[in-house]
Design brief:
Blueprint (H helix, E strand, L loop, with lengths): L2 H20 L14 H5 L11 H12 L21 H13 L10 H18 L6 E5 L2 H16 L4 H4 L7 E6 L4 H9 L7 E4 L1 E2 L4 E2 L1 H13 L3 E8 L11 H11 L2 E5 L24 E4 L12 E5 L2 H8 L30 H35 L4 E8 L2 E6 L7 H15 L5 E5 L2 E7 L7 H18 L1
Parallel strand pairs: 2-3, 2-6, 6-7, 7-8
Antiparallel strand pairs: 1-9, 4-5, 8-9, 10-11, 11-13, 12-13
Helix pairs in contact: 4-12, 5-12, 6-8, 6-11, 9-10, 12-14, 13-14
Length: 470
């Protein structure tokens, strides 16, 4: 591809992207394909000779696009959002064109310094104190792994990386059962082991872990010769929005000298609205906090911010400094690859900078407030229907519900059929979860361009299909 071709096809791709966004409401949210359909449509062997771009682009539209789930669809109410505001997409064009490797200050000074500034902008926007600095990770999974590794090293007096875990006291990490499965993976990968992730029972409306039980578990483990290392608390858990009492958990962590990581991957975005910050009261007592601007704020994936109260402990855990990665003759610089598990780093700060400048915090606050209000309104409407029940009350814009079909003794099976029928219809997309061992259907609104009319359609689709399948 020469320069003229690059210009032509870049313009074609940009035009396609704009047309795609404009036609999303005309498309089914989830593709109407069967497993293997796309695979079978693609040639079994790679091409020996170059093919023309127009043929490649046509195959993209004819073979690939029909098999895509449309995460930017305004009626995507499943999982959590993975928003890509148009201005963020424009920034990613530029990042892709430059293709910079931003692992060190010297490999792209602007990338490092813009990251430092935009992370601090977000710290201010969320109301976190000045003592926090931070880094843009690829995802909350990586941030949590980095936090667990730091817990491990701090508990082992910084000898784990050097000596390994053999012969050491058994490390213990504490969380509720509402945390994301990325916590389980971090425990596996860190070598701590699944058996040493202690699940603390939960109670109350927001499924907060019982801090008395947490403290008792820590004391019992110490008396048994084990080594408590850290606590992972949750704000806005994936299943139904489980949220710990962060102030109470932080006090337990302080008393026992444990590292506290707070996972607010989804709900953290809502903290740009001061009225929602009560959900994480006491967060200033955490050692590490993660939230994903690529979920609810509109920064294209991947863009996950990890705030740190003591970045030196983090760097001490993760940094390796061979001579070929040193920046000689420069003092006081930050190399963000030393704050991350991977060495390679994309220029993630640019899209966040574009987003914050193009929309401003107040516009983003309005979007989140609307999503919360629309979700609460839908929950109230479903609650007023005699054949529906609200299983978990709205936590910000997330709630779960169940349809009680009088003709179906197996409510779980009925609700699984219901969510599948809804999704096969293509007008909206939902997911299921389990609450107290029983199936419930999750609903969350968070797509960047969703409207009240889209949420109204969700009510229509849910009730029509539920009563048609009863």
């Amino acid at each position: 591809m020469n320069s003229d071709d690059f210009r032509q096809w870049s313009r074609r791709a940009a035009d396609w992207g704009a047309d795609y966004r404009n036609t999303l409401r005309e498309r089914p949210v989830r593709p109407l394909v069967e497993p293997g359909d796309i695979f079978r449509s693609i040639e079994a062997s790679p091409p020996e000779d170059a093919e023309p771009m127009d043929r490649i682009f046509a195959d993209f539209e004819e073979k690939i696009l029909p098999g895509m789930t449309h995460w930017q669809h305004p009626r995507f109410f499943a999982y959590f959002p993975a928003n890509a505001a148009p201005v963020s997409v424009v920034a990613e064009y530029l990042v892709s064109a430059m293709a910079a490797q931003c692992m060190l200050w010297q490999t792209s000074p602007a990338a490092t310094e813009l990251e430092t500034r935009t992370v601090d902008w977000m710290r201010q926007a969320l109301g976190l104190p000045e003592g926090f600095s931070g880094v843009i990770q690829d995802s909350a999974s990586s941030a949590t792994l980095a936090a667990v590794l730091t817990m491990r090293e701090r508990a082992l007096d910084w000898q784990g990386n050097k000596q390994g875990l053999a012969g050491q006291a058994r490390l213990r990490i504490y969380s509720s059962d509402q945390v994301h499965t990325s916590i389980d993976r971090a425990i596996w990968i860190s070598g701590i082991g699944e058996d040493n992730l202690v699940r603390i029972p939960v109670g109350d409306r927001f499924l907060a872990m019982d801090t008395a039980a947490l403290e008792a578990a820590i004391v019992a483990d110490r008396e048994a010769g084990m080594l408590p290392a850290g606590i992972i608390a949750c704000v806005g858990g994936t299943s139904t929005g489980g949220t710990d009492d962060i102030a109470a958990v932080a006090e337990v962590a302080r008393r026992h000298g444990l590292y506290l990581h707070v996972d607010a991957a989804w709900a953290g975005s809502a903290m740009i609205c001061p009225e929602y910050r009560h959900f994480w009261t006491g967060v200033e007592g955490a050692d590490s906090v993660v939230f994903n601007p690529h979920k609810w704020l509109g920064a294209q994936f991947d863009c996950s911010i990890q705030f740190l109260r003591d970045p030196e402990s983090h760097v001490r855990t993760l940094a390796i400094k061979p001579d070929y990665l040193k920046t000689h003759g420069r003092d006081g610089i930050i190399n963000y690859s030393e704050w991350s598990v991977p060495l390679g780093r994309r220029f993630r700060a640019l899209k966040l900078w574009f987003l914050l400048r193009a929309h401003g915090l107040e516009s983003l606050r309005t979007m989140i407030r609307n999503h919360v209000a629309w979700s609460e309104g839908l929950a109230a409407r479903l609650a007023s229907e005699p054949d529906f029940e609200i299983v978990s009350e709205p936590m910000l814009s997330l709630f779960s519900f169940r349809h009680n079909a009088v003709t179906d003794a197996d409510t779980d099976a009925h609700n699984l059929r219901l969510v599948n029928a809804i999704n096969d219809g293509g007008r909206i997309y939902l997911t299921q979860t389990k609450v107290d061992g029983r199936i419930a259907i999750r609903f969350q609104v968070g797509q960047f361009e969703a409207t009240a009319a889209d949420v109204d359609m969700a009510f229509t689709v849910i009730t029509e299909i539920a009563r048609g399948t009863a």
